[in-house]
Amino acid sequence: DQQMLAVLNLRGQLCLFSKDGSELRRTIFILDGLVFDDSILYHTHFSNRFGNPERHFNNSVAVRGATVYILGPSFLTVSRLLPWKEWIEALKRAGDWMGAMDMAMKLYDGHTQGVVDLPRTLDSIREAIMPYLVELLLSYIGYVSEYISIALSNHTGKGGAADGLIDADRSLLTEREEQYARVGGVAVEFCVHIGRNDILFDTVFSKFVAAQSGGMFLEVLEPYMLKDMLGSLPPQIMQALVEHYSGKGWLQRVEQCILHMDISSLDFNQVVRLCREHGLYGALIYLFNQGLSDFRTPLEELLSVIQNATRKDATWY
Questions:
Q1: pLDDT digits (tens, 9 = 90+) for 79-91
Q2: By its UniProt entry, which InterPro entries does this protein fall under (predicted)?
Q3: Can you tell me whether residue 73 is helix, strand or coil?
Q4: What does 93-155 look like in DSSP terms, one character per residue?
Q5: Cβ atoms within 10 Å of 179's Cβ, excluding its own
Q6: SS3 14
Q7: For the chain, how long is the longest CA-to-CA vector?
Q8: Please, is 301 exposed, middle or buried when counting C-beta atoms within 10 Å of its C-beta (0-12, 13-18, 19+)?
Q9: Are 192 and 220 in contact (CB under 8 A)?
């Protein structure tokens, strides 16, 4: 990219600047864990007018395309601008999954300074990187799931006192839940950011169900619905959410979730049926009022519920 400037300073730092002078990257050369002050080969054959030798770096630095070659005292350093995919893969190999996903979201938003091998327009960028973004997310979920599975299998093979094993089991299960909750949060934010809720509610949810953590996934959705980041749910997810929360006695919480949903994107009849089955009358009123501008039906239904309750009480006495 001709809009960038690479500067190599005397401390062996390679700095990358954009056209407006903003620093994009700063690289320090490290070999075998050591930082070298004299990372560039130089000679002192020339002196200034005061007789002091000056450092000269003739033929120690060469540039070809997006690659800079730096000749050091005992090594050759090759530094190059990575294509966007290689850059993210490098972060993955270093174990920095959050850095890789953050980088991916920045590219999706069009922050491409210091990155090569991408189209010019934002729409073209998103179209080009979208398959890889989905693959990145699923790889992350698979990586964490495998890590948890290995941890569980290693623990199962260990022996010990019964009380100690029970405490260890509880600790391990708690850690497992925390790990999946963290993964679920990352998946929700990532999918919402790139506009792929279909992946979230289909592929990602299926992976959580397969790992016997479907309920955990549903609980992770709640704060995002309350923040209006998830305005709608597919019918199967909606039903699973209501049934899961009902089973735990969290009816008020699921009702609050419904109050934050976009009615036009819901399966109206399904949600109304679920509200009636579980007695979510606040949500039922909201659905009829906001969705159909119908104030009469929920009122009649509430009166019917009150009458039935009164009859039951009268029969009891």
A1: 888 889 999 999 9
A2: Vps41/Vps8 (IPR045111), Vps8_central_dom (IPR025941)
A3: coil
A4: HTT-HHHHHHHHHHHHTT--TT-BS--SSHHHHHHHHHHHHHHHHHHHHHHHHHHHHHHHHHH
A5: 17
A6: strand
A7: 114
A8: middle
A9: no
Q: How many other CB atoms are there within 10 angstroms of residue 177's CB atom?
A: 14
Q: Which tokens is 160 given? A: 């010990």
Nearest in space to 39 (alpha carbons), one of 78, 4, 6: 78
Asked if 204 and 137 count as a contact pair (C-beta separation under 8 A), the reply is yes
Q: Give the mean model confidence (pLDDT) for residues 16-30.
A: 80
Three-state DSSP at 123 gives helix
Strand, helix or coil for residue 316: helix
Q: Tell me the C-alpha distance between 107 and 115, whole Å.
A: 9
Predicted TM-score (pTM) above 0.85 = no
- Amino acid residing at 283: A
Say how far apart CA 270 and CA 43 lie, in whole Å: 79
Question: Under a CB-based contact definition with an 8 Å cutoff, are residues 186 and 101 in contact?
Answer: yes
Structural domain spans, the chain = 4-81, 231-309
Tokens at 29, concatenated: 């050369």
Q: pLDDT per residue over 71-125, tens digit each?
A: 877 778 788 888 899 999 999 999 999 999 999 999 999 988 778 888 989 999 9
Contact 18, 113 (CB under 8 A): yes
- Is 259 in a helix, a strand, or coil? helix
Axis crossing angle, helix 97-108 with helix 122-156, rounded to the nearest 10 = 160
- Which tokens hold the place of 296? 């009469």
Judge contact between 152 and 172, C-beta under 8 A: yes
Whether the CB-CB separation of 191 and 199 falls below 8 Å is answered with yes
CA dist., res. 142 & res. 132, Å (int): 15
Q: Are 275 and 258 in contact (CB under 8 A)?
A: yes
* Region of residue 233 (left: phi > 0; alpha: psi -120 to 50; beta: else): beta
Please, is 201 exposed, middle or buried when counting C-beta atoms within 10 Å of its C-beta (0-12, 13-18, 19+)? buried
